[in-house]
Amino acid sequence: MSVVLVDAGGTNIGSVRYALQRLGVDAALTSDAAQIRAADKVILPGVGAAGPGMARLRELGLVDVIRSLTQPVLGVCLGMQLLCAHSAEGDTDCLGLIPASVNRFEEAPGLCVPHMGWNRLSPVTTHPLLKHLEQGDWAYFVHSYAVPVGAYTLASTDYGGGFSAVIASANFHGMQFHPERSASVGAKLLKNFLEL
Amino acid sequence: MLSRRIIPCLDVREGKVVKGVRFRDHIVMGEIVDLALRYRDEGADELVFYDITASPEGRSVDRSWVERVARVIDIPFCVAGGIRSVDEARAVLHAGADKISVNSPALERPELIDELAAAFGVQCVVVGIDSMRDDDDEWRVRQYTGDPSKTRSLSRRTFDWMIEVQRRGAGEIVLNCMDSDGVRKGYDLAQLSVARSVCSVPLIASGGAGTMEHFRDAFVQARVDGALAASVFHSGAIAIPDLKHYLQQQDVVVRLQEASGHE
After folding, report:
1. What is the CB neighbour count within 10 angstroms for residue B256?
2. A151-162: per-residue pLDDT in tens?
3. What range defines the domain where residue A103 resides?
4. Are A154 and A167 within 8 A, CB to CB?
5. I want to staple A92 with a disulfide (CB 3.0 to 4.6 A). Which of A50, A184, B147, B200 is the partner?
6. pLDDT-derived band of residue B261, with 50, 70 and 90 as boundaries?
7. Which residue of chain B comes nearest to A21, CA vs CA?
8. What is the ipTM of this complex?
């Protein structure tokens, strides 16, 4: 099986790659359109801001490439947000592959932004990506923007109200948390993605 | 519900983990990767590595061990030590660190925080603050604390600096209360409580943990998001699984390894 990590300048590419290596998969790091199209699985990592993230995909000529993919695609953290229609971060139009918008967390007493740390996952539907995921499993989050709960939500998390932790639409999937840094729960979810 | 984080801190010097008392007299505690794996297995929520002599020696962090840690560790970790530029930060993040922490270099040139936040997002940017209470009862910031011969007292007040770093783009603040560091008499709850009131980003307590009650007090009384400690974990005085079960009994939300069962 060939797995590629789209090199769009995100800084967590190394950790995602190591997490896949721990699962026995050597993923190629690439921004080459042909290599991305030919892969069995495509992962869009990314840490940073939505505007620069989309700008980088445009510079690399990858916007239409990603839109045209039919194999399973996984966006992680910012990578997930880029799969959505629009992000409030820098008022950015994103890839539009999952019909969702990305909003900023509203600061409230006792509610720090960014949402940083371990929080619990609640599956809201059954999906192969969530295989063996238990209610209340912990995942590691670091983000200031989030996707509301909607028809595309597979699992939600509570932080001053529910938001989407895992989303999917057709072959496009997203995880708001960092599976590569979510210990055994994260490894389980990455393994599920590899088995889609 | 977001859990409170337990964060072992590994001070790195010449490629080994060391521990000093009140930032002095360091002894070697073990190999970096061995200790990182041990804490991961015990249920640490995050790890912090400080290359403690990088800043006083005017060099950036040694990246070879950052990559070794990133390969084996599946929990987040933060790296600190003499990071002075966006390029140096990028290299550490690309080596696999999840966050970078700046302290002395941010005091030298506060714009560094703005630049890091613009380049990587605030969620990557941790600002460490070393703070001591002066004779006039005011808390003020210290610089170059990794080497006692180079440590400097600054006129900058701790809470003024804490407000400024948030405005500039700090996504998390680690407050090292130096008066209590390494002496295991408890976190500085008075200072941390004031810090909490001026800190709208995650706040991590550092310095003084000696007993499990000290962790509870920091979470319950000072409402910090995470508690960082070194000597009690390195020495085995407190085992992380015992600490987490204790905290859970005290109604502090913690991540236990199994989602079902105990919870």
Report:
1. 17
2. 999 999 999 999
3. 3-194
4. yes
5. A50
6. very low
7. B71
8. 0.90
